Amino acid sequence: MALPEFSKITQNTTAVPEWAKYMKDGEFISYYTTYQSKIYFDLFDEYSYPCAESGDITYYVYDPVKHGAAADKKYPVLMWLHGMSNALDGVKCIMCCGAEQYASPKYQQAMGGAYIIVPLANEKRLDNGSIAGSWSEVYSAPVKGIYDKVCKDHAKNIGKRFVMGASSGGYFTWQLLEDYTDYFDGAIPISSGRIPSDEALDRISDSGVRLIVAHGRHDEMADFDECVAPRMEKLQSMKNCICFFPEWVYNGDGGISSVHFGIEMGQHCMINWVQTNLMFDDGTPADERLPEGVTGWIKKVAGEDK
């Protein structure tokens, strides 16, 4: 798939997206997230996982104990999976995949502490602009291996296991849930262009995993009517599943999100809102079922029996 080189394009903050015609009086477009980014990269340690099939995989780990959390407690583990082309930005992928703010002191306190894992697919840009090496089934076993290694290395402090990701990372979140159904305790597939079969969803539901399935109704790249609407009833019937399908994807300032780097993808970037903890800056939750946002949901699930 051809995608622009986002790092070489200045965001267009004057473009009026196609979906703007559906906005109501009083609504406004917001072009920037309200959280400060690229400030927590140094809290992550870089590792490499050897893999003959996909090539060695770079991954980053945030260790709460190393950064002051109690050494005699157990903490949830959050694996964040990036979208297509994000791995090309190296360490910046920690921000792009949604993980960075969850390493902040504020979010860590809200969750009661958490390990964070960010693996990078071995992506490369081809001459025609398309991206090769993005998430696929070939990564399933090695990424699970990375998860196992982090859990083994920090065994005495490991609690519940979560996986979450947006766009192609949302697809791969579903893939891992299909392949290792009983492994995870919580998952957040976001803006995925693919949803598993009914049979797979039944297995995932019966496993007891807690879910937030998030997808904006004006998504520019994973069309809601095509990707989600036909499966909405099935998703809503799953056990322990919150289906978050808002009319608009917002930034923390209450404006409707627009991200334009050669293509419009503000409504596809649900991950930005998730990195705002699905909370507005004034403290209002995006969904009444998540009164303390994603961090509160993680803390709740981490303390539950599966």
What does this structure look like?
The strands form 3 sheets. An 8-stranded mixed β-sheet has the order 2-3-5-4-8-9-10-11. It has a two-stranded parallel ribbon with strand order 1-12. A two-stranded antiparallel sheet has the order 6-7. The protein has helices at residues 93-96, 105-111, 140-153, 168-179, 198-206, 224-227, 232-236, 270-275, 293-302; strands at residues 29-30, 44-49, 57-62, 75-81, 115-119, 124-125, 131-132, 158-166, 186-190, 210-214, 241-244, 256-257. Helix 2 (105-111) runs parallel beside helix 9. With 306 residues, it is of the alpha/beta class. The chain starts with 28 loop residues before the first strand and ends with a helix.
The proportion of strand residues reads 15-25%
Order of helices and strands: EEEEHHEEEHEHEHEHHEEHH
Instruction: Compute the CA-based radius of gyration.
Output: 18 Å
Shape: globular
- Low-pLDDT ranges: none
Structural class determined from secondary elements: alpha/beta
**Helical element count?**
9
Mean pLDDT: 96
Helix content: 10-25%
- In the sheet with the most strands, the strands line up as 2-3-5-4-8-9-10-11
Distance between the termini: 39 Å
Q: Based on DSSP secondary structure assignment, what is the total number of beta strands?
A: 12
Largest sheet at a glance? 8 strands, mixed
